[in-house]
């Protein structure tokens, strides 16, 4: 019988191993992976405790599914690197970068199932989530992916400072840096057209797409399908033009990325 104590032990063990891998690779050449994947979760005030649990368990079950594990195994490097960013008014990196293979995906899912909710504030700033996620994708994180993907999920629109244009600004900066942003809008009666908002304001980059969850009960199915799509297609992301990057708020971070590639 799997108990919560055993789940926590497995999660701690997985995280410790991943941390050790990162410590080793930070002093050596970056580990090649198919995808550097940043999972960006909405934990704003509109998300109840039970809804947060549905999101968290949805991610956990997805990584424990045969579909996602087969997608990981189908890649050139048969591995991905994953981190989690949670956002509300602000955004917080909830995990460091974790090396995930088909053999370790179940343990990673167990780790995610124990992940606590960060105190990020009650408002919804998708822009801040994108900004923090992009900074970590572009940093010298110990991994070198064929593509960098940001996976944004949430149940509402930007409402921080009544400035929705900040979402598109952060999206455009990230995309200019070579990042693909995909969206998983959780459509409810509060925002019945959230999929249109994500299409117009959130997603961007090569083959970017929106995967709709029709309510929180549909989240696990939607995120599983989304991860299979994101992980299964590993066409390298084209390098951005230096002219596009010039003057952007991410130019310093791109320098770190270039150092990493050297």
N-to-C terminal Cα separation, in Å? Answer: 48 Å
Number of helices: 10
| CATH H-level superfamily | von Willebrand factor, type A domain
Helix content: 40-55%
Assigned CATH architecture: 3-Layer(aba) Sandwich
CATH class: Alpha Beta
Which stretches of 5+ consecutive residues score pLDDT under 50?
Answer: 7-17, 23-27, 235-262
Given the helix and strand composition, which structural class is it?
A: alpha/beta
Tell me the CATH topology: Rossmann fold
How many domains would you count in the coordinates? 1
Overall morphology: globular
Instruction: Let me know the number of strands.
Output: 6
Mean pLDDT: 84
The run of helices and strands is HEHHEEEHHEHEHHHH
Largest pleated sheet: 6 strands, mixed
Short description:
This protein is α/β, with parallel strands linked by helices and 262 residues long. It contains ten helices and six strands; from the N terminus they run H-E-H-H-E-E-E-H-H-E-H-E-H-H-H-H.
Summarize the structure in words.
The protein is an alpha/beta fold. It has a single domain (44-261), classed as von Willebrand factor, type A domain (Rossmann fold, 3-Layer(aba) Sandwich). The protein has 10 helices and 6 strands; from the N terminus they run αβααβββααβαβαααα. It has helices spanning 4-25, 49-63, 66-73, 105-113, 126-138, 165-176, 194-201, 219-232, 242-245, 251-261; strands spanning 31-42, 80-87, 91-93, 98-100, 143-154, 179-185. Strands 1, 2, 3, 4, 5 and 6 form a 6-stranded mixed sheet that branches. α1 crosses α4 (105-113) and α2 (49-63) runs antiparallel to α4. The protein is globular, with a radius of gyration of 17 Å. The termini are far apart. 46% of the residues are buried. Mean pLDDT is 84; it is low at 7-17, 23-27 and 235-262.
């Amino acid at each position: 019988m799997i108990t919560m104590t055993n789940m926590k032990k497995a999660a701690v063990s997985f995280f410790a191993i991943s941390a050790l891998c990162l410590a080793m690779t930070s002093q050596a050449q970056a580990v090649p992976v198919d995808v550097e994947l940043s999972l960006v979760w909405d934990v704003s005030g509109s998300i109840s405790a039970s809804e947060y649990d549905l999101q968290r368990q949805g991610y956990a079950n997805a990584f424990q599914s045969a579909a996602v594990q087969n997608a990981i195994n189908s890649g050139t490097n048969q591995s991905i690197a994953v981190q989690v960013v949670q956002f509300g008014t602000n955004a917080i990196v909830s995990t460091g970068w974790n090396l995930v293979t088909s053999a370790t995906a179940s343990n990673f899912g167990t780790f995610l199932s124990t992940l606590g909710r960060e105190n990020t504030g009650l408002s919804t700033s998708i822009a801040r989530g994108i900004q923090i996620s992009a900074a970590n994708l572009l940093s010298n994180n110990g991994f070198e992916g064929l593509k960098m993907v940001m996976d944004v999920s949430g149940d509402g629109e930007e409402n921080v400072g009544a400035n929705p244009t900040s979402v598109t600004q952060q999206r455009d900066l990230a995309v200019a840096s070579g990042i693909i942003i995909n969206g998983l809008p959780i459509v409810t009666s509060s925002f019945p057209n959230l999929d249109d908002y994500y299409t117009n304001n959130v997603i961007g980059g090569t083959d970017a797409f929106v995967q709709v969850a029709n309510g929180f009960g549909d989240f696990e199915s939607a995120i599983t399908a989304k991860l299979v799509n994101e992980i299964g297609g590993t066409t390298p992301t084209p390098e951005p033009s230096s002219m596009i990057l010039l003057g952007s708020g991410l130019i310093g971070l791109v320098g770190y990325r270039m150092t990493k590639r050297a």
